[in-house]
Write a structure and sequence with these properties.
The protein is an alpha/beta fold. The chain is 38% helix and 18% strand. The protein starts with a helix and ends with a helix.
Length: 206
């Protein structure tokens, strides 16, 4: 189990890094219709509740700290007012994402101690993303926003599974999220022994 957990937080360059939120999460969603909005916010709330963390109406410093942007073309981001203040070097970033034909991008911001302070999620609704049901897409993005996972964590297997035709969080991923938010665990870890501690918390909870 420890090796599997370690892979979730070991980046492509071999470094280990896990970070969680300390401040309550305040989400806002742009670019979806009124019917889709509660689906996305419901998925976020479900994952936050699973973690034993909190949500709030506003962040005293940032206003909102988890922003979702849905759009059809990366160039649309260049027209969003003041987005270049939130995302440094926005123009070259958009150029790189277009060149890579990317469908999604997440930009995390961190507290002084390395805990997650904010997350900006950009989703280009094309290809495989456009084919996903709204609840599946929302749940997957909520999971990937609750912790700082490895950049390769879900390359081989999605954090979700199908149960009776509905997308659900894989139990082993749910266990890792709960363990990572256990009060005895650190908000930030850069040593792979952290995976051992996560495995121990999961065993203890069984």
């Amino acid at each position: 189990m420890t090796d599997q957990i370690s892979k979730l937080f070991t980046r492509a360059d071999g470094t280990y890094l896990c970070a969680r939120w300390e401040r309550p999460i305040v989400p806002v969603v742009f670019g979806v219709d009124e019917a889709t909005l509660p689906i996305i916010k419901g998925a976020i709330e479900a994952v936050v509740t699973l973690a034993g963390h909190q949500m709030a109406e506003t962040d005293p410093e940032l206003g909102t700290n988890l922003m979702f942007f849905f759009f059809s073309d990366w160039d649309e981001l260049l027209d969003v007012p003041d987005l270049d203040r939130l995302i440094p070097d926005l123009t070259p970033l958009v150029a790189r994402l277009k060149s890579a034909d990317a469908l999604q991008y997440r930009a995390f911001r961190f507290e002084e101690n390395g805990a997650i302070k904010a997350n900006f999620v950009f989703l280009r609704m094309a290809g495989a993303l456009a084919d996903l049901p709204a609840d599946t897409l929302a749940l997957g993005q909520a999971v990937q926003s609750i912790l700082l996972w490895s950049d390769t964590a879900f390359d081989d297997q999605s954090p979700l599974a199908l149960l009776d035709g509905n997308a659900v969080l894989r139990p082993e991923i749910a266990n890792v999220i709960r363990a990572a938010y256990d009060p005895v665990m650190p908000s930030v870890a850069q040593d792979s022994t952290h995976a051992l501690r996560l495995a121990a918390r999961i065993d203890l909870a069984k």
